[in-house]
Predict the 3D structure of the following.
Amino acid sequence: MNRSWAEPWKIKMVEPISVTTREHREAAIVEAGYNTFLLKSDDVYIDLLTDSGTTAMSDRQWAAMMIGDESYAGARSFYKLVEAVHDVYGYEELIPTHQGRGAEHILSQILISPGDVIPGNMYFTTTRYHQERAGGTFVDVIIDEAHDPTSMHPFKGNIDLDKLAAVVEEFGAERVAYVSFETNVNLAGGQPASMANIKAVYDYCSQRGILVMLDATRAVENAYMIQQREAGYEDSSVASILSEITSYSDGATVSSKKDNLVNIGGFLAVRDPELARKARALLVAFEGLHTYGGMAGRDMEALAEGIREMVRTDDHVRSRVGQVEYLGNRLIKFGVPVVTPIGGHGVFLDAARILEHLDQDEFPAQALAAAIYVDSGVRGMERGIVSAGRDPLTGENRRPNLELVRLTIPRRVYTQSHMDVVAESVIEVFNNRESIGGLTFTYEPEDLRFFQARFAPIAQDA
Ligand code: F0G
């Protein structure tokens, strides 16, 4: 018999949530301009907007917050964090920031000169924004399978070494600011890179003097996928796999609001003390003093404990990814097109296939996310043409192959029955998909437009 897993925790405190009426949600989505980012959380029943900063902390983390050292300089809590990052990720130099994008900003400013290129395995919104702002150009070198939602490739986050070599040949190694290597690639659907690929990229780059900087935001989930899928790692702990991943890099940016089990925080970590010196010089201008960056002492305490907790045993990540797979498999069973294999942090609905009657310019993923919200109060997020934004040179919409709605699962927050309710709603909307019409912009922000854009239904011809 296939035995069930269960969460390796029990619930000590609860936060009530309430169900709203359909009528209420219809009004709320209009008020929010059909953008789930603009909904009030009080109008949301099950919130799958993001796994970022939405974690439930443990009793140990809450206890740690009480002993936070709020000294402006040299706080004890900072040194605890340095130790935790060193023990778990292996990096010597820690630059604490308020969250991931703070680290991306600093990294981009110290490594990118105007005209540089930054090859990476699919863009992430804020990462690419900071790379472009520093005068660089992001070049996507992820394997082709990553852009195909139906491909069952076990490591869709891999970098295509031929594509990488072509970029290096075209621009020369000296114009490659660094390789931006994301673990468990968010916009590909939470898809991992293999250890063999991470090592091969690092070998290739270090021979040519090119730095490899990880976006290690979801590296624990990637490590778990390696344990489950890559030959030779089935008996290794997630902690040891994570150490090996980071050993093939020169540094990393991390949004601690994901793997690290806290509600706010992030860091840049590097090996080279000279790079760290440059980063700290900017840190004091943009984030805070080098021993707190953007965090309070108590935040650093909770983070240090979260970093240790996420890999203390493998049970945490097994149940975390297990819950995501549970939801994904229920949807697959009822024929809902989703990105496969099911990713580490969420289930990604294939809006292009679900709403085949809509053109990509009619924002199918945006419309689908709004329809699911109206059906049940479940909040997901568009990850398609709206998130991709416009090409800064041509001003044209980028048209990504992936037009997705992300249902992102917060860590340690919802139960299996919440997942059942979500699945039932998505199946209901899927069965009535022909009734969903397209959207058009009523307000389009210049930068990172998906956060604050507003939409209205496209007028139907009478
Ligand atoms: N890198 C990745 C892969 C991310 O997913 C995020 C954030 C960041 C960097 C930026 O970190 O939010 O702490 O500034 N992702 C969130 C999400 C917003 O919903 O996927 P941040």
Notes: The pocket of F0G is lined by residues 50, 52, 99-101, 124, 126-127, 182, 186, 215, 217, 255, 257, 266 (CB under 6 Å). The chain has two domains: 22-51+314-457, 59-309. The mean pLDDT is 97. The longest helix spans residues 315-333.
